[in-house]
Amino acid sequence: MVNLSESFNKMKAYLAMIGLQFGYAGMYIISLVSLKGGFSHWILVVYRHIVASLVFCPFAYFLEKKTRPKMTKSIFLKIMLLAFLEPVLDQNMYYLGMEYTSATFASATVNVLPAITFIMAVVFRLEKVNLKKVHSLAKVIGTLITVMGAMVMTLYKGPIVDILWYSHGSGHKAAAAAAVDSDQHWVTGTIMLLSCIVGWSAFFIVQNKTLEEYPAELSLSSLVCVMGVVEGGIVALIMERRKGAWAIGFDSRLLAAAYSGIVCSGIAYYMQSVVNKSRGPVFVTAFSPLSMIITAVLGAIVLSEQVHLGSLIGAGIIVVGLYSVVWGKSRERSAANSHNKQSYNNDDHLPVSDMKTIDQINHHNTPKSLHAAEP
Predict the structure, then answer these.
(1) Chain centre to alpha carbon of residue 202
(2) What mean pLDDT is predicted for residues 334-349?
(3) Is this prediction's pTM over 0.90?
(4) Which of 41, 80, 141, 158 has its CA 20 to 30 A from that of 314?
């Protein structure tokens, strides 16, 4: 029973990040449906974080009331930066890029997230690189392969590929006609998606730094959501002038705001904070290819989306590079754990001189009656 509990504790971070990819895949599909229905992504970002704030702020206030550190100017500025990088920059660029491309392509582009995060982590000294070590070499080579895959996805679109046996063949002509009109937007959409990834990577780096000063994961997540409402609301008022665009009812708009707010803002920010604090930003982003696979299947089923060959080839290259990085990270962690364990075992044995000193102290503190009873 103890071994089972220990195994679960070791797997918690992996299970959390894998489960989160299913949540993101659902968000990609639901959000795209609402956006195609005329919902403004600027307003979706605001409503999404209003829902997250209303749901998670009460929990953060009561559960971390005694452990929450005091707010300082430095922490507040970091929270403002986090709210700009993720809720404002990342999400709006993602929704714009997804409108210009597709849900499948957008989720596939996220595969480059670990590579960008790794590069930023090296720059900010959250990751160490020693090319003489195999695991460090694997991380560097994997990063280069991932960037190459992203370039393939960007520069080569390719023919349409049916990923499911029952995909609608009649949709090919319509898709081909639409592709002629959308080609001019494809590069623009890709640039927006890559901008989104840079913002998202920077978010994880700043999040890791902020947790050092403010180690209250739930409170930090809630405050990012609140500031996301403020900053996102200002941007939405500037970019979206139509008053009717703010209208929402019991439809796909409400579903998109509620689902993405609870699952992909509140829960995601909190889970990522916990794992980021213990495993680092590169580990948090290591499972993004799973989201692409799930989204591709859901997109073909729900939206009858067609997948382009360039997306599949580029995503495949990215997956190879990504897991080279993950393998390097796992070997690095194993080596660090072995070193720490060896250091602990060495420290566990006191020198002989220290043992003699302890015996002398114990002998000195022993009552005289006990000394008299000694033979």
Answers:
(1) 11
(2) 61
(3) no
(4) 41
